[in-house]
Amino acid sequence: MISRFLPPNSLTELCRAALERDARSVRRFEEASAAKFGFPHGLFFPYGRAALHTLLRTLGWKDAEVVMPAYTCVVAAHAVVLSGNRVRFADSAADHFLVPPHELEAALSPATRMVVATPLFGYPIDRLGYRRAIRVRAPNAMVVYDLAHAFAVEDDEGPQAADADAAILGFGIGKQISTLYGGMLLLRDQALCDAVRELRNRTFRKPGMLRPAKLWAYGVAARCAFREPLLSAVDWLERKTPLLYGITEYYYGKGGPSLPVDACELPTPFQARLGLRQLADYDRRVDCRTTLARFYHAELSRYGFYCFGFHGRPTFSHFPLAVERREAVAATLRGDGIQVGKLIDYSCPQLPGYESTRGTCPNAAYFGARMLNLPNWPGLGVHDARRVVASLCRVRDRRPEWFRTSNEPAPSVAAA
Ligand SMILES: *Cc1c(COP(=O)(O)O)cnc(C)c1O
To answer: Which of 25, 186, 333, 370 is most buried, most CB within 10 Å of its CB?
Structure first.
């Protein structure tokens, strides 16, 4: 079976990073990440959400408005709410999952203190349009890029986060670079960086002695779970039993605003060493994902599937495909030995904790109910992607109504 993803850390890498000794590896990883992704400062956190949460706590705001996409990973919204501030969601476009400038502008107001710009799945946002909307509606807002899917994403002007005040990277096991759990806050301002570091070091617990060993075991187990001979068994367990539910759903935070119990525990030097190894291999990994994603885009467009447009240089953390009957398509592909992902299968306003915003973002709800992610992890080849395309074509020949065929906008009635 072609798995929907493979955790990035190889078994050799996990063992090497566990055996090495280097007291400065956290600092080295922070400096290397900042340098690689174009910021002067970096701070390593146990999760990406903890980075945003700690930034907001450092700023000391209360009840401030933070604008972010409705179609994004809900853990980013949780970080805002749990810091004592408010989220205002911006809708996706009618024909694209990204937030277009006019929807951003509609969500912004003079009360907006922070804008979270999210190039989801590594697809560049319309940076010029965002800049204009922010200048008109919320000129003093802090601009933070959520680069969890899009570390080094570029448009024609260069790196997208070049004019951002801050950025958040995600190093969870599903990201392009993984420290098993982890995230990085990238900052431009030295004084702000010092203040966030001080708050982090003062309020986060030191990891327990056994933490590196537990993380190592988790990394090994995850790597094995997404490869045969275990892959098919794990896939079955995940679908047919609640055994893995505790791990996956807990992590994704779909039960309401809360942080994982270890979100206030400093990451370990072992994780930093994993990160350093992964950083060194980052460009190759993005190239692999990009090659497969561009193949999907070209082939599926040619066969008349609806594909999302892009400009600049997307990093394609995933390849998104919106279909009308997600479960049916996924089940049929599984019959062909192909596992597809449903990475963000909701829009934030429909989740517990965000009831007051329900119905405000119909396009995001529309895509949240339809999105699949096709496998494009490094290690797959074009022959695998060709199998996926062929399987999709066969399904569509039999069941055209399961798919979106043209660039038609989301019917807004369907979203409510
Ligand atoms: C993964 C992710 C984050 C951060 O995730 P953590 O699990 O907190 O490390 C933030 N935003 C998006 C869009 C993500 O996918």
So the answer is: 186
